[in-house]
Amino acid sequence: MDSEQQRLLRSLPAVDEVLQAEPVKGLLAEAPRGLVVEAVREVLEEYRASIRQDRYPDPVTREEVAVSAAKRVRAFLRPHLRRVINATGVVLHTNLGRAVLSRKAREAVQVAAAGYTNLELDLATGERGSRYHHVNRLLTRLSGAEDALVVNNNAAAVLLALSTLARGREVIVSRGQLVEIGGSFRVPEVMAQGGAHLVEVGTTNKTYLRDYQAAITPETALLLKVHTSNYRVVGFTRETSLEELVALGRAREIPVMEDLGSGFLVDLTPWGITGEPTVRDSVAKGADVVTFSGDKLLGGPQAGIILGRADLIRKMKAHPLTRALRVDKLTLAALEATLRDYLDLPGARERIPTLRMLTAQVEELQPRAEELLALLEQQLTGRGALELTAGYSEAGGGSLPTTRIPTMLVTIFPRGVTADALVARLREQEPAVMARIQDDRVVLDVRTVLPEEIPLLAGAVTACLT
Ligand SMILES: *Cc1c(COP(=O)(O)O)cnc(C)c1O
Q1: Is residue 98, in this structure, part of any structural domain at all?
Q2: pLDDT of residue 56
Q3: Which of 65, 88, 118, 151 could hold 156 in an S-S bridge, CB 3.0 to 4.6 Å?
Q4: What is the CA(116)–ligand 1 centre distance, in A?
Q5: What pLDDT is stored for residue 431 in this prediction?
Q6: Are residues 73 and 89 in the same domain?
Q7: How far apart are the C-alpha atoms of 28 and 77, rounded to whole Å?
Q8: How many CA atoms lie within 13 A of 213 on its CB side?
Q9: Is 223 found in the same domain as 125?
């Protein structure tokens, strides 16, 4: 180390000196002292490392160190899981936490979080109760199934069902249904984790009943149908229907399971949402086990719902994995309230944000888009051109892959900044904003923006262009 480096190292302020500097002194009133001291040490250590590598020719002042340290502490103190305004038009955006919960579900979470609950207590007898009891009656009533079980997510539901019903034995699946959901959920891999042997039948585009028939051996434990919820095989195709599989399963005494993935409880065909089977349908057609997500089309909290024959569900409940995959009181509170929202079906569409967003018609979205446009026109004054256009939203979350839902878009042609830079700035706002880029323009889809968020969204865009 040369003498110049030694001089610079010696010129660095001491930790105590930095703590006296204004930017840090103010911070000590709101942040734990240990955190601030640690940040100052870190910043000083980084300066030392730069000096040793000859990357820092000028002496630094205690103010400079204090400013860096304060910035670090503030960044750490800010919640990491933050609110986001979803202007992408993707209703079940997995990266944005999928379903927005209904008012009743939010209130139920609040109550369960704030005090004790009868999570595993039978209030009538004072005896120990089951946490699954709170939603069983609702699930069986809404689906027509004999019994139900709720676990952490649908991936867990499939894993538990396979581990319980098919460990060490064979499961027959069509080649056209070897789905990858993303985040490493692939049917063949979950099958391997569950200890079941995958027997693929048919081809990518065509699988006949006779393919399943020919594959049955004394080792066959399950016939599995996986709903291709995030893609569609179209054209020259043939899928064996659930009814056909159920008839085969009954004749050979092999249970049939359907992994629905997204799982609708209501039929939204009148609102133009078609091609998605309902949970009730699968149960009515005789599937012995049906699994689906709580936070996809159901519009509830993250959960995996297993419905089916009482004897099979009983076996799953007794499996040691169930304990590892169990849901907590907040999930159960939100799920129970969401299911109660479904008891009166016509009203469910109004109460459950996911359903309301999926079914909102252009006439309903137009005023919201116009309100946003008017606010932006007022505030932006020349910093970008604006346009109201028709476009399409998506269901997302691996649901309804081919459904394009007509929507209204507010398009921004930014001035003096690229579309990429503008969306990056929008993500840094509080609340953060997620927008779409289309042909070098920034597009805001109001379908997924809650009406009360419109002024906030306009404010965020304005802040980014000022
Ligand atoms: C989404 C999906 C899953 C996984 O569900 P998570 O609740 O996200 O764990 C499994 N199977 C299918 C068919 C799906 O669509």
Answers
A1: no
A2: 65
A3: 151
A4: 32
A5: 96
A6: no
A7: 12
A8: 8
A9: yes
Domain membership flag for residue 404: yes
114 lies in which domain range?
A: 103-351
Q: What is the pLDDT of residues 344-384, one digit of tens each?
A: 988 999 999 999 999 999 999 999 999 999 999 999 887 88
Question: Domain check: are 388 and 444 in the same one?
Answer: yes
pLDDT band at 273 (very low <50, low <70, confident <90, very high): confident
Residues whose beta carbon lies within 6 Å of some atom of ligand 1? 153-155, 158, 179, 181, 185, 226-227, 229-230, 259, 261-262, 293, 304, 398
